[in-house]
Amino acid sequence: MNLDSGRKLRLNDVLVSSAIVMVASTILLPVAFGSSSVQGQRNQIESRMHQLAVGIQAYAADNSEQLPFGSGFDSATNAWRWTATVQVPAGWRRSTTEVRNREDSLAWANSVQPYFKDWSLLESPDLPKFKVGDKSDYNNPKFPWKNVSFAYNGNLHSLSMSAVASPSKLTLLWHGYGRASKEGAAMASPMLSCGDPSVTCRYASGKQPSDMLFQPEASMWVYGKEAYFVSVDGTVTTRKLRVEDHRSGE
Asked: How far apart are CA 239 and CA 215, in angstroms?
């Protein structure tokens, strides 16, 4: 009798322990999977940004060491559209002219694409998407647009690679739009203020044109309180940002 009671007690202990393990699993596994998912996203971002940097380096090597343009060119005014987004890919909007499409094709996201091939490299996973420009174009595109999460450092617009003193420290691309992806559009930020066609649109310390950092689409805290940056030499880093929104200091 005592032996049977002992057996029942041990069996009950096993059943209770199993139940505790099952409950604990339901609590812990989503956390574990969630953490794994976040790390997977981070790894994917780092890989994409590095591949984009390598593509830009290859573009420069084929273009007399000149880095890509940050914006499209307005042939009517002979000036750079430094405050405007460009279509990605150029020509997907039905409302734009063939001339504008050719001009947009000059900007970095389009001109460098043959060197990185995969359009998806331009996008960080799972960021909110924002439409820009004429919203009616999204209802009937000529062909699928591509989303862009990274801003090009427009201070590098047409700059020679030899003019970059510290390739490992100078930002090439970053989450300049904040926690957002532009749908079918790209923009450099900061960008040189190249509205005057009489002034060469190229960075020169202490000289015109000056640069401007554009308003982000969303919070600058992209992952936690961090954003991703890739330098000219392809090194990817995260940086903690003091403020969530550089416009208000909040």
From this structure: 19
